[in-house]
Write a structure and sequence with these properties.
Number of strands of chain A: 15
Order of helices and strands of chain A: EEEEHEEHEHHHEHEHEEHEHEEHEH
Radius of gyration of chain B: 20 Å
Distance between the termini of chain A: 38 Å
Number of helices of chain B: 10
CATH superfamily of the largest domain in chain A: P-loop containing nucleotide triphosphate hydrolases
Strand content of chain B: under 5%
Structural class of chain A: alpha/beta
CATH architecture of the largest domain in chain A: 3-Layer(aba) Sandwich
Largest sheet of chain A: 6 strands, mixed
Strand content of chain A: 25-35%
Oligomer: heterodimer
CATH class of the largest domain in chain A: Alpha Beta
Order of helices and strands of chain B: HHHHHHHEEHHH
CATH topology of the largest domain in chain A: Rossmann fold
Number of domains of chain A: 2
Helix content of chain A: 25-40%
Largest sheet of chain B: 2 strands, antiparallel
Number of domains of chain B: 1
Bound molecules: adenosine-5'-diphosphate, magnesium ion
Structural class of chain B: mainly alpha
């Protein structure tokens, strides 16, 4: 599978601050890639380097097969972006703003501009307020307009820095649906966020960064692989604990009113279930415990002796 | 990109308010002259103003001479100082660069737009000056500063060269402001910086102690376009003025480009 984005030892130093520290990112084509980290961890700086806005102190970047920043102007027309807030002309209407940015660069045919603008506004739910000046927009609407700008022309890669900032829950859901639709149409999306739940719910792959260092990078499913603990819901937790405790090979069995939880060890869930049933314990639910991304994140940051994000 | 920027300039209320303000000073002065009928004594006051009562044809250059020392450079500093820094503080700079608009292209488009503004302002002021001068004082053949009359088409080219000379002087100002505009994210800061440089230059220009550097100050030859209305034309200071501005423009644009092309865009 080819790579939409590769960085190698990517590093950025601001004076004494090491904002990005030897980061190797690998985004596959078709990924909805989550770039996760607390505030100040280096996400924006990394994305700015990928877009040629900030020059790296060290390392290399390849975007859509081209070296950046050297060939950045060849790839930028193929990338749609939202970096740290939308950025529009405050006194101009939403439509004029979009028209202006569309006209400022290559690839936006004038003939189709009106239709493309209407379509983009419609897709982000701003169809009815296109005439309003940007400075009359709420934060959420401004953010939506920022997304509309990335939809004016088709892009192979979208780089979105905290795109759901300032959106209400409904807005977040709308945007997630939109991103999933775009990925289904073949767009690769890199989405930075400090919201673990957001990345967990829509991304296919993710990288976790903290204090400029890459802590993990993998498929979400693999990052959230079962922990090895299993939870059994039953009417008879006492009996369940006795059966499992007596048969050795199970550890850390804990019991509460609704059931028991334990380390699966070498056993399979099926085997566990069979053993309970043959011993007369009715099993209502058997749940393989998966970590949340937050658990993974906290575990990784603690392992490295790093401060837990505040 | 140029057309987009041009549309931004022309649709922006600020552009027209500034030009209206620039025009209002000569208009106010003309009204006072007309009502009182008293002009500055010959050889005193702003250039040409003493002769305007006798001949409205001199009012366009008189009007330009009125706005040249303060109003016009302030307006140019504000426009050029805001050119890059204003985009940075609005958060639009990164979206232009990502669009992509090359950094060099962006910078030179901003310079071109500032040039358009300068010419627009100078031409509007000169045109309004011509209309007001004609209406209030009547148009006659031009007497030169040295006393001889010059014919109408002769006056036209002299006025045209004056307009170009003033515009080029203002491009020197614009280059300084544009350079500062690439250094900061505050358009006001860049404009104030450019104005501070000009005030310093004007003060030094009055100082005998600074005699040795006076001819190299950016403001030194600003009013030399007066020499275009002598007979024969005294070209020396005019050409020196053009040359000095060319150097300032080259140096500050070069510095602006070197800085902007290599800087991290963090706005
Ligand atoms: N121009 C700069 N000078 C000094 N430090 C900076 C500069 N820009 C960013 N930083 C620092 O780099 C780190 C990463 O910032 P950033 O990339 O914005 O993080 P994030 O987007 O993950 O919140 C932060 O500690 C920030 O303070
Ligand atoms: Mg950020």
């Amino acid at each position: 599978m080819s790579r939409a984005l590769l960085t190698h030892n990517l590093t950025k130093r601001f004076g004494a601050t090491l904002a990005v520290d030897h980061v190797d990112l690998e985004v596959h084509e078709g990924d909805l890639f989550g770039f996760l980290g607390p505030n100040g961890s280096g996400k924006t700086t990394t994305l700015r380097m990928i877009l040629g806005l900030v020059y790296p102190t060290g390392g290399s970047i390849e975007v859509l097969g081209k070296p950046v920043p050297r060939k950045v102007r060849d790839v930028l027309p193929r990338i749609g972006t939202l970096v740290e807030g939308p950025g529009f002309y405050p006194h101009l209407s939403a439509r004029s703003n979009l028209a202006l940015f569309d006209a400022a660069g290559p690839g936006g045919a004038k003939r189709t501009r009106r239709a493309r603008i209407e379509d983009a506004l419609e897709r982000v739910g701003l169809g009815s307020v296109g005439r309003k000046p940007f400075n009359a927009f709420s934060t959420g609407m401004q953010q939506r307009l920022g997304l509309a700008r990335t939809l004016l022309r088709p892009h192979e890669l979208l780089i979105l820095d905290e795109p759901t900032n300032g959106l209400d829950p409904q807005g977040m859901r709308d945007i997630r649906a939109l991103l999933e639709e775009l990925v289904a149409q073949g767009t690769t999306i890199v989405l930075s966020s400090h919201l673990l739940g957001e990345v967990e719910s829509i991304c296919t792959r993710a990288a976790i960064i903290n204090r400029g260092r890459l802590l993990a990078q993998d498929e979400i499913a693999r990052l959230l692989a079962p922990t090895g603990r299993v939870r059994i819901v039953t009417d008879d937790p006492g009996e369940a604990e006795r059966v499992l405790g007596a048969s050795n090979g199970f550890h850390s069995v804990t019991r509460d009113a609704a059931g028991v939880a334990l380390e699966l060890g070498g056993a399979s869930p099926e085997e566990l279930n069979r053993r309970l049933v043959t011993n007369g314990v009715d099993v209502r639910e058997l749940i393989l415990e998966r970590p949340t991304l937050e658990d993974v994140f906290l575990q990784l940051t603690n392992e490295r002796g790093a401060r837990v994000p505040g | 990109m140029f057309l987009v920027e041009l549309r931004k300039l022309l649709t922006r209320p600020r552009t027209w308010v500034t030009i209206a303000l620039l025009t209002s000073l000569p208009v106010i002065v003309a009204v006072f002259l007309k009502v009182s009928g008293i002009g500055p004594r010959a050889g005193s006051g702003p250039p040409f103003l003493s002769q305007v009562l006798g001949n409205g044809a001199l009012f366009p250059v008189a009007a330009l001479a009125l706005i040249l020392p303060v109003f016009l450079p302030i307006a140019v500093s504000v426009i050029a100082g805001d050119a890059v820094a204003g985009e940075a503080s609005a958060g639009t700079l990164r979206y232009l660069l990502i669009r992509p608009v090359g950094r060099t292209r962006l910078l030179f488009t901003k310079l071109a737009i500032t040039t358009v503004f300068v010419f627009l302002a100078v031409v509007v002021v000169a045109a309004v000056g011509y209309l007001i001068g004609g209406a209030f004082f009547g148009i006659k053949p031009l007497p030169t500063v040295s006393g001889r009359t010059i014919a109408a088409q002769d006056a036209t080219w002299r006025t045209a060269v004056s307009v170009i000379f003033i515009a080029v002087s203002m491009l020197g100002v614009a280059s300084i402001a544009l350079f500062l505009s690439t250094l900061t994210d505050s358009g006001l800061g860049a404009a104030l910086g450019a104005m501070a440089a000009l005030v310093t230059s004007q003060v030094l220009d009055l100082l005998v102690a600074a005699e040795s550097i006076r001819p190299y100050l950016p403001t030194h030859y600003w009013l030399s376009f007066v020499d275009l209305f002598r007979y024969p034309v005294l070209w020396h200071d005019v050409t020196r003025g053009f040359a000095i501005q060319a150097v300032y423009i080259a140096v500050f644009l070069g510095a602006a480009w070197a800085n902007f092309a290599t800087k991290d865009i963090e706005s």
